[in-house]
Amino acid sequence: MAPIVEIIDVSKSYRRGNRTIPVLADINLNIEEGEFLALMGPSGSGKSTLLNLIAALDQVDSGAIRVGGIDITALSENELAEWRAVNVGFIFQFYNLIPVLTAFENVELPLLLTGLSRRQRNEHVEMALRIVNLEERMDHYPAQLSGGEQQRVAIARAIVTDPTILVADEPTGDLDKVAAREILELMDRLNRESHKTIIMVTHDPRAAEKARVIRRLEKGFLNDVHSQDPH
Amino acid sequence: MFILKILIRNAFRHKLRTFLTILGITVAILAFGLLRTFINAWYGGVEASSASRLVTRSSISLIFHLPLSYKDKIRQVDGVKVVSWGNWFGGVYIDEKNFFANFAVDAKSYLQLYPEFLLSPEETNAFLRDRKAFVAGRKLAKRFGWKIGDTVTLRGTIFPGNWDFVLRGIYQGRDETIDETQFFFHWDYLNETLKKRASARTDQVGWYMVGVSRPDRAIEVALAIDRTFKNSLAETLTETEKAFQLSFISMSETIIMAIQLVSFVVIIIIIAVVANTMSMTYRERIGEYAIFKTLGFRGWRIAGMIVGESMVITLIGSFLGIVLTFPVARIVGKMLSNYFPVFNVAEEAIYMDLAASIIIGLIAAIVPTYRSVRIRIADGLRRIG
Ligand SMILES: Nc1ncnc2c1ncn2[C@@H]1O[C@H](COP(=O)(O)OP(=O)(O)OP(=O)(O)O)[C@@H](O)[C@H]1O
Ligand SMILES: [Mg+2]
């Protein structure tokens, strides 16, 4: 079976004034369906940049990225918006919940772009909140939740549309040890039990331990595969 | 529905800031509404003027008089129905600051020409029977506490001496655009008194008021009247009542222009204030808008949130401003009632308020909307944390 994500000769640089800063150079990477990949590397090595490219939040300079057989580098801005809504679940370091919306409403957000009825949406949201074990907090606003709880809401929001891939940029970066472990266990469960494909950027070796594959990014180049048999 | 929910919640996130912005808008719209009302009041006399009435005066200037004998010649002009005439009396009641308009008119024809002054048949008869009688508008009588039968003495300025008049009627305006502050008495009384004093100013008329049978022919009739007196000793200028009123106003045209300008400056200032609030708000929310985009929300939805929030704030402020305009205009109207017989908030002023508030809301949202639609997601997300 073809990999769910294929990154082919991708390069990316940023322009600052009249200077061009190369960030990624000829990256090649395949990610299999159901994989849990940790992307590590020093600060500034381009991990977030690569993740953003996979999630279609940013555009490549050259090369191609295929996700689920679709070349996302060939899509227009509007097509990408639609594509993201269906195919990608996002988890960020700072949770990125909308403060004026309750946990329930935050999780419901991505569903508003689908054709689901109100009842169907309610069912999906409740299910997602049950998976992250927060169904009794659904009427709370983000400010009323702890960091770990907010991140769990963010995970519920990421999985509620049942996307093709989950991308997480340092999901435990802002959490204490206990909360971080909870989040990692949750992601591990999503990967094992629901066979979600997860791509996670992290600094934290303990976080990386949970992943099945670790890739290191060093000055814009990918290093060898470290496949690990977890536990 | 969802967008409505979030934009309303967003609008009240910073309660103090939103409150202050709304307060600013309220004050601005109030000021704007009052200034527009002021301008309307200035043109008030024009609004009430009738299209079927002409005013004939000396072609040289208003201060030159016309002979009384013209009245019969004007009556003979084709299309003329009623002729009345009057003189500006310029009397002072007790003190200069009690200013109000007072003039001598040919009573019967005057009442006939001005049906908008409602006077009961009894009072009309009492007025016509008594040569020293005068009629006052309701507001004027109320202002000085005059009752029917009271004697009121005016000190003449143009016509020296103390003049006694007896109040025989209090008229009411047919609608609220009608001036209820006039004071008029018998021209005959003025003229006979002048005759007794052997004054040179007898049988002189300040202006003629002419009622035409068909308003659409008013201009023709005006030209015919002026033709009648061409090359005579006192040539005339006849114009519609409206034009006559406007020629008064045009003297103060520059003041009106200045007020117009100020009213628009107020709006421009408040646009700047609201625009500033909106861009502050936007700067704080760049990250959130980036999240919406990440989740697949398109630019137009985000634009809707920002424009909607701006409109919610502006419309609340404007609504309060409009509601407040009415009581405040009433108070201001009372204070200025000596100068503006009619000081009512015109429907037009409300439409101007609404138009202004929509313009404020839209313009204030332009820059943040443009930026939010243009910003790249990756850049927006970098602002978080
Ligand atoms: N929008 C941008 N404009 C200019 N330079 C950028 C932009 N985004 C990223 N960069 C630069 O690209 C390089 C890689 O950034 P990136 O955020 O991908 O690193 P990272 O590996 O995620 O680092 P960290 O571990 O600190 O999050 C950095 O030098 C960064 O300054
Ligand atoms: Mg990063």
What's the number of extended β-strand segments of chain B?
12
**Would you list the SSEs of chain B in sequence order as H and E?**
HHHEEHEEHEHEHEEEHEEHEHHHHH
The rounded Rg of chain B comes to 30 Å
The largest beta-sheet of chain A arranges its strands as 6-7-8-3-9-10
Global geometry of chain B: elongated
Beta-strand content estimate of chain B: 15-25%
What is CATH's topology name of chain A? Rossmann fold
Mean pLDDT of chain B: 89
The helix count of chain B comes to 14
- What is the architecture of chain A at the second tier of CATH? 3-Layer(aba) Sandwich
Bound molecules: adenosine-5'-triphosphate, magnesium ion
Which regions of chain B are unreliable across 5 or more consecutive residues at pLDDT < 50?
none
Count of individual domains of chain A = 1
Structural class of chain A: alpha/beta
Annotated CATH homologous superfamily of chain A: P-loop containing nucleotide triphosphate hydrolases
Q: Could you name the ranges of chain A where pLDDT drops below 50 across 5 or more consecutive residues?
A: none
Distance between the termini of chain A: 27 Å
Quaternary organisation: heterodimer
The pair of chains with the biggest contact is:
A-B, 27 and 21 residues
Separate helix tally of chain A: 7
**Overall geometric form of chain A:** globular
Walk me through the structure:
The complex is a heterodimer of chains A (231) and B (385). By secondary structure, chain A is an alpha/beta fold. Helices cover 32% and strands 28% of the residues of chain A. Chain A has one domain (5-227): Rossmann fold (3-Layer(aba) Sandwich). Chain A is built from seven helices and ten strands. Chain A has a six-stranded mixed β-sheet. In chain A, strands 2-1-4-5 form a four-stranded antiparallel β-sheet, covered by helices on one side. In chain A, a hairpin with a 2-residue loop joins strand 4 (62-67) and strand 5. In chain A, helix 4 (118-131) crosses helix 5 (147-159). Chain A is globular and about 50 Å long. Chain B is of the alpha+beta class. Chain B has two domains: 2-44 and 252-382, no CATH class; 60-234, no CATH class. Chain B has helices at residues 2-11, 15-42, 44-48, 70-76, 107-113, 121-129, 138-144, 187-196, 218-228, 241-249, 253-294, 299-335, 347-374, 377-382; strands at residues 53-58, 66-67, 80-88, 102-105, 117-118, 133-137, 151-155, 162-173, 183-186, 204-205, 207-212, 236-240. In chain B, helix 2 runs antiparallel to helix 11 (253-294), helix 11 runs parallel beside helix 13 and helix 12 (299-335) runs antiparallel to helix 13 (347-374). The mean pLDDT of chain B is 89. The interface between A and B is medium-sized, with 27 and 21 residues. Magnesium ion (MG) binds at residues 47-48, 169 of chain A.
